[in-house]
């Protein structure tokens, strides 16, 4: 047997990441703390709550299901950023810093999701996306990192706002928008509610990825693929509950965006070893590994790949295959690296 891929090998491997949230508020907060001389976690500006570890936010004894997801992703950011921090200059800086982090990991191409309602409300989508596009151009020129943006639609905000987000995404294609993502409470807001906005995105040539098979079962994945034209599924781990669905995913080359540490903290699996990665691979389903919310989860793509390599005894060739799956499933052509 070949040796398990080492962390050093993975860090030096040219990589592609598809499921990465900008998480504007949290990154703005880090920027604000740095500018105010509060880089020490114990020294926050007056009135700003300290960031809680994800394990505390997602304490299984206190929260279950999607409520835990909301706590994990939003509670630590609520009310901690003043409106004046939402400027074009700051959005550009935090986007560029995210791409700098990608470059340090040898990530050649990354798709960054943005869906913060507050940022769009305060700046407007054109200014928000324009600021991100400036950072994208600088990162490409200075760092050699290429990226695309994915506009996130949040189910709880309803189909009407979803259509508005899609139209903004279509208008932003020239600035690097390559797709839309349907996220949020999949149990109470099934994908079929969003058929019209996602149809507009599909007709405009945008890629479609849908969070499904995370808190709800295989039915949402079926709808996302068969009726909404999803080319990728965010998480999707519960697809293993339906062998016929696995065959459909394989035959249509629908790619799953696995996020191991995220699933672990949300209580969707008791350990990395319990992820159905090997079963998905054995079924021929294209699988990728991603970091999801790296700033909040204290992780990055290299650590995620190393975690699954260790848990499932993956050698260098198998890890490289996961990265190649991501390259094939990208919503935009990946430029060749000189």
Automatic annotation (TrEMBL):
Mention one GO molecular function. metal ion binding
Keyword Thylakoid appears in the UniProt entry = no
Would I find Zinc among this entry's keywords?
A: yes
Judged by the first EC level, this protein's enzyme class is hydrolase
Specify the Adenosine deaminase domain's residue ranges: 14-333
Q: What is its EC number?
A: 3.5.4.4
Cofactor names from the entry are:
Zn(2+)
Q: Give one Pfam hit by family name.
A: A_deaminase
Q: Which keywords has UniProt assigned to this entry? A: Hydrolase, Metal-binding, Zinc
The family line of this record is: Belongs to the metallo-dependent hydrolases superfamily. Adenosine and AMP deaminases family.
PANTHER family (alphabetical): ADENINE DEAMINASE
Q: What is the protein's given name?
A: Adenosine deaminase
**Organism from which the protein derives:** Candidatus Segetimicrobium genomatis
